[in-house]
Structures are given as structure tokens and as C-alpha cells.
Design goal:
- The chain has one domain: Sandwich (Immunoglobulin-like), CATH 2.60.40.
- 10% of the residues lie in helices and 39% in strands.
- The strands form four sheets. Strands 13-12-11-15-20-17-18 form a seven-stranded mixed sheet. Strands 1, 2, 3, 4, 6 and 8 form a six-stranded mixed sheet that branches.
- Strand 17 and strand 18 form a beta hairpin.
- The protein binds copper (II) ion.
- This is Copper-containing nitrite reductase.
- It holds the Pfam family Cu-oxidase_3.
Length: 358
């Protein structure tokens, strides 16, 4: 698991244990020798080291995808003008570990599930290219951050082909992206989801913050079965966390120091369920629904985020401790919609983090 922080991971908690399920906290939990948690990763080092697993979605894997397991690669974002960026992503098939000895053959963007965080600036024209490495299935990209014709610019890209689409990111905020190929439900449930953040550097959020993280909630269906998806009862949730440092996505642990003001870019990429987003032990001093500065709320305990919705939340951590970042719908938290923010005096990880309480 040594590189687990460098790729997006899918981590599932056991029904019996409320435990961390983000990349960094997996390490913490292991170090702390707590009750073992069920974890998952799209990381190939992990794959190589694990014993032979069984795909939980075995019955739904297409024969041509059976031997595919493409390595995670970073999203390519190249600025070609003051207000123009080229973004290139792949659609592919990647093994995702959903529990010890249990694999999910996922459809992914860039070999990650959820896919990589994309960051652009307000007003940018995005030239988006999707390289479809899947040998059998069409895929596409639906960015919630743009105004465009879906039929033209969210169009399918055929297997082993690529397509380029152009649109503008006019609205600041935190948005979902997903594959929009029919049946959309299946492409979303199989892992083709992620987060795009549109920043406004000319008019940033008013508060100065010490730490920024991207937190992404997702749903999984261990059968891979369309009927289960239609019934909207996920077997697992995940809460992935990525650091944002100097505007770039990093992989440092989910930590803060006492007195820090923390900003979370939260996005609910799950297929169907709303999420009651909450951080144990604090109050959201400032909330911007969908990350838009005009949607400003104060003093919120929990924020209801619809499927596909997002929010920017800010709070200050005043004491040391382990702060659960979770859906307060506890059926979801018990199935994995929980991560843990470690707060220490110096902002460094302790050898033995204390147990979360709620
Ligand atoms: Cu797709």
C-alpha cells in the first residue's frame, strides 16, 4: 500500500466498523493497529501484492474487459492561453479493490475511481479530449461546470477512439463530472465520476484559510447489477480526500493544526442518494452551496447535498482530536461515507491517533 496516497482510491469500511475511508487515513488506521477495516484501492502495487480475489461484479464484466487493468495516470491539464486550457483524460477499465480479496472491475477515468480532480479558472475555454481505451464500450464526458449542447459536446467517443470538445467554464464552484453514455446509471455506478473545481482567482472566497481539501462522496453496488442500482440501495459508500495545496492536488495526509481554518470542497458524485454533510466537533462558519460565492450560508451544522451537488465549507478547528467528516445519514456513514481529519498541535501526524467518537 506504499503508494496508496498517489492514486485515487476506493475504500470501503466494514459494516461493523466506523473507520476512515480516505487515502491518508488508511495509513493512519493501519499504523494505529485499530480494528481492521475493509479497504480498497485502484493501485496496482496493491493489486500485485494481494491474493487472488473474486470480482464482486463478475457477472457483469464484458469478455473484452476481463484482462484489462490500466494503471492510474494523472489528468493532463495544459494552459495554452490566459483563458484557455487543454484537458486530456482517458476512459478505461481498472481493478478496484473493494475489500480484502474482493475486486470490482470498474470503468474509470484515468484509472481512478472517483476520477482525478480537474481544476480550471472561471472564464476558461476548455478544450477537452477523451481518449477511450475501452475496447468495447462507448464513453463520454459530462462536465456539470459548463453551458453547452449535450448532444454535441457530451457525445459518445467510440472504443479505441478519441474525441475533442470545447466549452467555457463560466461559473465558479465545485461540480460533478461523469460519463454521460447510456445507460448513464451503469457508467456512473461503475466508477466514471469525479470533481471539477472552477476557481475565480480575481474574486477568491473572502476568508483566508490554512488548509484546503477536496472531499468526494461516492456510492458502490457490490453486485454490479442494474436492478440493485435501480433500487438505489448501495452496498458501500466511500469518502475520498485529496489535499489542495497552492492550487494543485496533493497527497499529504488529512491533517490540520489547532487553530487552522479549514476549507473543504465537497462533492457528492454518488449515483442517487443525497448526503447530509457534517464534520463532528465543529460548525461550518461559512458555506457556499455548489461553491458559488452568492450561495453563502452561515453557521450550518450539516449541509444537505443532492446527488451531483457540491459545497465549499469552512470551519476552524479549536482543539486537538480526530474529527469525523461524514454523511450524518448513518446508514451511509456505516457503509463507508466517512473520513477522518486529524488535528494536532503542530499539524503533524501523531504516531497513534486517538479514536474518533460520535
Ligand atoms: Cu462511460
Amino acid at each position: 500500500m506504499k503508494k496508496v496516497g498517489k492514486v485515487a482510491t476506493v475504500m470501503m469500511t466494514s459494516m461493523l466498523v466506523l473507520s476512515a475511508c480516505n487515502t491518508t487515513n488508511l495509513k493512519l488506521e493501519k499504523n494505529a493497529k485499530k480494528t481492521p477495516q475493509v479497504s480498497a484501492s485502484a493501485n496496482h502495487d496493491t493489486m500485485e501484492n494481494m491474493s487472488h480475489g473474486k470480482y464482486v461484479n463478475e457477472n457483469t464484466i464484458l469478455p473484452t474487459q476481463k484482462n484489462m487493468n490500466e494503471k492510474a495516470t494523472p489528468v493532463k491539464i495544459k494552459r495554452i492561453g490566459k483563458h484557455e486550457v487543454n484537458v486530456t483524460m482517458t476512459s478505461t477499465v481498472t481493478d478496484v479493490q473493494v475489500a480484502p480479496d474482493v475486486l470490482y472491475k470498474a470503468w474509470t477515468f484515468n484509472g481512478e475511481a472517483p476520477g482525478p480532480v480537474v481544476i480550471v479558472n472561471k472564464g476558461d475555454t476548455i478544450n477537452f479530449t477523451l481518449e477511450n481505451h475501452d475496447p468495447t464500450v462507448n464513453h463520454s464526458m459530462d462536465f456539470h461546470a459548463v453551458h453547452t449542447s449535450p448532444t454535441k459536446n457530451f457525445a459518445d467517443v467510440k472504443p479505441n477512439d478519441k474525441g475533442t470538445f470545447t466549452y467555457k467554464a463560466s461559473n465558479v464552484g465545485v461540480f460533478m463530472y461523469h460519463c454521460g453514455t447510456a445507460p448513464v446509471m451503469m457508467h456512473i455506478a461503475n466508477g466514471m465520476v469525479g470533481t471539477i473545481i472552477v476557481k475565480d482567482n480575481a474574486n477568491p472566497y473572502p476568508n483566508k484559510v490554512d488548509k484546503e481539501y477536496v472531499v468526494v462522496n461516492n456510492e458502490w453496488f457490490d453486485s454490479g447489477n442494474a436492478e440493485d442500482m435501480k433500487n438505489g440501495n448501495p452496498s458501500h459508500y466511500t469518502m475520498n480526500v485529496r489535499e489542495l495545496a497552492n492550487g494543485k492536488v496533493g497527497d499529504t495526509p488529512f491533517v490540520a493544526k489547532v487553530g487552522d481554518k479549514v476549507r473543504l470542497y465537497f462533492e457528492n458524485v454518488g449515483m442517487s442518494q443525497p448526503v447530509s454533510f457534517h464534520v463532528v466537533g465543529t460548525v461550518f462558519d461559512d458555506v457556499y452551496l455548489d461553491g458559488n460565492p452568492y450561495n453563502h450560508l452561515k453557521g450550518m451544522q450539516s449541509v444537505m447535498i443532492p446527488a451531483s451537488g457540491g459545497a465549499v465549507v469552512e470551519f476552524t478547528v479549536v482543539e486537538e482530536g480526530t474529527y469525523s467528516v461524514l454523511s450524518h445519514q448513518f446508514d451511509q456513514a456505516m457503509k463507508g461515507s466517512i473520513a477522518k481529519l486529524i488535528v494536532t498541535k503542530d499539524g503533524k501526524l501523531p504516531a497513534q491517533p486517538d479514536a474518533a467518537k460520535h
